[in-house]
Design a protein that fits this description.
248 residues, alpha/beta, 4-stranded antiparallel sheet, 9 helices
Length: 248
């Protein structure tokens, strides 16, 4: 059973501005689906809405995870249902070490009451293993979340959290932005690791470069809050050549 967005209309709470305007989209388990679109088309708004950000008000339509509507749930509840969002612009969280954030979210997920408990040796081994695979220096694990992290380090840190939490569905909002060439390959490998564990991946991106490595099964194009085209990987290549002007 997939993650489904059905006829979704969303506006910014208090402003009335409609940012998602009748979107239908589906991500199956073990599937990589790409979402592309020009700046300001509503991609991040859709991602935030799926995750339950209070600024985004669902006017109509539904968001369904494995057959169950999640529209009434808090972000925490959605997270416990197995949703994860990797932010386009990850925020700094002063006073919280990255390793503690990951350990606490992992413990919460497995129902452990002592959130900082580290007696399960698997968690520490896994954090170190994936940090090393992602090229994230060990020192960063003991710094406050994202504080003073470079752009590429932030993206790697988001991906580390996704790999440890092992979500059912992961939404990655431009995980490849600001990354060097090696970084894109590392992130693409991590996405493939998630997919091979049967996680469904919604990958928001501006670049076909990452899609060449991960080969999505579907590509959606969003313009002005609407899905204007849906196709295979070749659609991403067409956009790379021709841009979005045909849709506007
Ligand atoms: N909290 C908010 N308050 C006011 N306007 C908002 C808010 N969130 C989004 N918007 C507006 O909604 C539109 C869609 O923004 P969104 O961030 O979803 O676009 P995007 O497709 O992710 O763009 P990009 O590719 O640049 O990341 C933009 O015009 C943006 O200014
Ligand atoms: Mg965005």
């Amino acid at each position: 059973m997939p993650l489904q967005v059905r006829d979704l209309v969303v506006r910014i709470r208090g402003l009335g501005k409609v940012v998602v305007d009748g979107v239908n989209l589906e991500v199956g388990k073990g599937e990589i689906v790409a979402l592309m679109g020009p700046n300001g088309s509503g991609k991040s708004s859709l991602a935030y809405t799926i995750m339950g950000h209070p600024r985004y008000e669902v006017v109509s339509g539904d968001i369904v995870v494995d057959g169950e509507s999640i529209v009434g749930l808090s972000p925490e509840e959605r997270s416990l249902k197995g949703l994860f969002l990797g932010f386009q612009n990850p925020v700094e969280v002063e006073g919280v070490k990255l390793s503690n954030l990951i350990i606490a979210s992992y413990n919460k997920r497995i129902g452990e009451r002592d959130l900082l408990k580290t007696s399960n040796p698997r968690i520490i081994v896994e954090i170190n293993k994936y940090a090393s695979i992602l090229g994230l220096r060990r020192e960063l694990l003991y710094r406050d979340v994202n504080v003073g992290f470079s752009g590429g380090e932030r993206k790697r840190s988001e991906m580390l959290q996704a790999l440890i939490l092992n979500p059912r569905y992961v939404i990655l909002d431009e995980p490849d932005s600001g990354l060097d060439v090696d970084g894109v390959k590392v992130i693409a490998n991590a996405i493939e690791t998630l997919r091979s564990r049967n996680t469904g991946v919604l990958l928001i991106t501006h670049y076909t470069r990452i899609l060449r490595y991960v080969k999505p099964s579907r590509v959606y194009v969003m313009v002005n809050g609407r899905i204007v085209e849906k196709g295979g990987y070749e659609l991403a290549e067409k956009i790379d050549r021709e841009g979005y002007s045909v849709y506007q």
